[in-house]
Design brief:
Strand content: 25-35%
Shape: flat
Radius of gyration: 24 Å
Helix content: 10-25%
Distance between the termini: 60 Å
Number of helices: 7
Structural class: alpha+beta
Order of helices and strands: EHEHHEEEEEHHHH
Strand order of the largest sheet: 2-3-4-5-6
Length: 192
């Protein structure tokens, strides 16, 4: 088991030994993520709490090594199941977490110019590398922008499909559709 903060010396040692560690985090301990999880926000109620039980721990497997450029690297496997809010029906929807990433650990931004892929890097500060924050960043980056149930699934059962079909049947009003002809210009096709 590993603490959530790794100091520079410890990181160098872990990388030299190609060490493996595990880190288990609960979503409520990740403040930015907790605000997006059903049952963790504090404003959830009713049947939404049923989905909260599925939001357990995030298991994070870590493997350290010395990268090809000579900087320590951490390879992360983050797995778990989070309960998000469906953007169609506003009911809980399960999101399985399966993230695999490798990050090169740097002490200054200038070092990123020495990397083949500077976007897969993270800065370590004087207090060390906050793995809890790194895991939270990776999960937030991988999250769907608008989580929804699959088409034809639970959203349809909740009546959301009926709501969308009502909007689809309303004719679209285009107040400027014939403006070009009134101005004496030839009308252009929208496919141009």
């Amino acid at each position: 088991m590993l603490g959530s903060r790794i100091e520079t010396g410890e990181l160098t040692e872990l990388a030299a030994r190609n060490a493996r560690r595990e880190l288990h985090l609960h979503p409520r301990d990740l403040p930015r993520l907790a605000g997006l999880i059903v049952g963790q926000r504090g404003d959830d109620f009713g049947d939404a709490r049923e989905g909260a039980e599925a939001s357990g721990f995030l298991a994070t497997g870590l493997r350290f090594d010395a990268g090809p450029e000579g900087f320590p690297r951490v390879h992360m496997t983050i797995t778990g199941n989070l309960t998000l809010e469906c953007q169609r029906c506003l009911r809980p929807v399960a999101w399985p977490v399966e993230i695999f990433t490798s990050l090169t650990v740097l002490t200054t931004e200038i070092q990123s110019s020495q990397l083949d892929d500077p976007f897969d890097s993270v800065l370590i500060d004087d207090d060390g590398l906050n793995m809890q924050l790194v895991v939270e960043d990776e999960v937030l980056a991988a999250m769907p922008m608008a989580p929804t149930h699959g088409s034809g699934s639970e959203c349809a059962e909740s009546g959301a499909a009926d709501l969308y079909s009502k909007f689809d049947s309303v004719p679209m009003h285009r107040p400027f559709a014939d403006l070009a002809s009134k101005m004496g210009r030839p009308e252009q096709s929208r496919d141009d």
